[in-house]
TrEMBL record:
Entry protein name: DNA-3-methyladenine glycosylase 1
Enzyme Commission number(s) of this protein: 3.2.2.20
Keyword Hydrolase attached: yes
Domain of life (superkingdom): Bacteria
GO molecular function: DNA-3-methyladenine glycosylase activity; metal ion binding
GO process annotations (BP): base-excision repair
Keyword Disulfide bond found: no
SUPFAM superfamilies associated with the record: DNA-glycosylase
Swiss-Prot/TrEMBL keywords: Glycosidase, Hydrolase, Metal-binding, Zinc
InterPro entries, alphabetized: Adenine_glyco, DNA-3mA_glycosylase, DNA_glycosylase
Binding residues annotated for Zn(2+), in chain numbering: 187
């Protein structure tokens, strides 16, 4: 391999290699170092990530992270049972809440997906549905150009979620979710976080 193979990695002041996107701000670096790509298997944890990924669509992930605590306050800690009870009055309050990203389609998707999450409990639950689409083989990217934006598994999971009543769950967003919760390890090969999830040998 040549230096060009690892051109997307940046060596931080701590001597650790990270992809460029994770080396731009303290917030992104801390998220990358402690959370991104680590396994999430609880219903509430996956519901939160699904919601945050939908809010990120068309925007920067850093913006979502900056507003994450506001999102948690606004959406009852992403407890699907509580969010499923939100009504039109709550939608109006959310649209007036400066702590979150005020996009009505995305807000309504969260409420809809909370109800779909509860319905799924009778069929194994959200975690079982999502993790049943874990690919059989991992990815081994050297550069960001080798990381796909979607996969056969994200296409299949997107379809399964839509069939279960979820909205705002396109295959590209779902692939980002799969990366974030450790279903695939797209840490670049020379990143200090490669293999940290424990999901892949």
């Amino acid at each position: 391999m040549t230096d060009a193979d690892f051109a997307d990695l940046i060596i931080g002041s701590d001597g650790l290699a990270r992809p460029a996107w994770a080396a731009t701000t303290d917030l992104l670096r801390d998220y990358y170092d402690t959370e991104w790509g680590m396994p999430v298997r609880t219903e509430q944890g996956l519901f939160e990530r699904l919601c945050l990924e939908s809010f990120q669509a068309g925007l920067s992930w850093e913006l979502v992270l900056r507003k994450r605590e506001g999102f948690r306050r606004a959406f009852a800690g992403f407890d699907p049972e509580k969010v499923a009870e939100f009504d039109e009055g709550d939608v109006e309050k959310l649209m007036a809440n400066p702590e979150i990203i005020r996009n009505q389609r995305k807000i309504r998707a969260v409420l809809n997906n909370a109800r779909a999450t509860l319905t799924l409990r009778g069929r194994g639950g959200l975690s079982e549905l999502i993790w049943s689409h874990q690919p059989a083989e991992n990815l081994y990217p050297r550069t960001s150009a080798e990381v796909p934006s979607q996969s056969p598994e994200s296409l299949a999971l997107s379809k399964a979620l839509k069939e279960a009543g979820f909205t705002f769950v396109g295959p590209t967003m779902i692939f980002a979710l799969m990366e974030a919760v450790g279903m695939v390890d797209t840490h670049l090969l020379e990143s200090h976080r490669r293999g940290s999830s424990g999901v892949w040998a």
